[in-house]
Amino acid sequence: MPTVEIVGNGLTYNRESTAATASFYDVGDTWTESTPTFTQVTATLKIMGGDADIDNYLVATRSNIQDLEAAVIELKAKAVRDLFEQTFISGDSSTNPKAFDGIDKLCQSGQTLSMGANGGSLTLDKMDELVDTVKGGKPELLLMSRRSRRIINKLARTAGTMLESDRDQFGQMVQYYDGIPIGLSDYIVDNQTVGTSTDCSTIYALQFGEGAMAGLTGPGGLQVERVGSLEQKDASRTRIKWYTSAALFSTLKLAKLVGVRP
């Protein structure tokens, strides 16, 4: 996902709600105006991070100081990245004002599909409908749980075909549905409640970019700051912090399918 670096504590932008239209005209016809409709939205940068303390005793008794420090900082940075991923999906500033809104909340009702009042079994027809709900081109990612991917694999095998597989830009194997990469997240749970069902999940379809879904970051991105020696314990502290948020520039670039049951 592209990230937009901004100066200040937030970004006020116009979110596209409906697309513009065009028409054919005869000579002398009266032309009608049609422009997209926008809603002004403000995305505020939120403060993410944590402190990593390195015990001076371990530093003094280990032969490689840099390896120990690097390992501790790397683990803390991974925790920050994991929190961002979790918040990117399920963040809700109304329940936690310190967090930003994730794609589940940002997705509008007109872009939300359902498998039924109490959920239902996924079908390839419904997957195609989800893909088509994203306007202005195909989604660039289908984001789902591991269980949902297994269901799609099973549906494809039943239909006598297989999902495409290829390596991404990082050399990792990725599966594709209709040419769209399938992304997995352990933060998309399979125990959501829809109606009377408590075993439901959600599949998201997204486009990325400054006209679609993008991350926001303060200058410098993820930062590592050395706080120094601590007074009350024999350790030194390093702080990992990130001023970040997410912005949906067009409601037409994000869709979700809720109520996916096993």
Give structural notes.
The chain has one domain. It has 262 residues and is of the alpha+beta class. The protein is built from five helices and 16 strands. Strands 5, 6, 7, 8, 9, 10, 11, 12 and 16 form a nine-stranded mixed beta sheet that branches. Helix content is 23%, strand content 38%. The mean pLDDT is 91.
Write the layout of secondary structure elements.
Elements: E1 3-5, E2 10-18, E3 37-44, E4 46-55, H1 56-61, H2 65-90, H3 103-106, E5 112-114, E6 120-121, H4 124-133, E7 141-144, H5 146-158, E8 164-167, E9 173-177, E10 180-184, E11 192-194, E12 197-206, E13 213-217, E14 223-229, E15 235-248, E16 254-261
Parallel strand pairs: 1-13, 5-16, 6-16, 7-10
Antiparallel strand pairs: 2-3, 4-15, 7-12, 8-9, 9-10, 11-12, 12-16, 13-15, 14-15
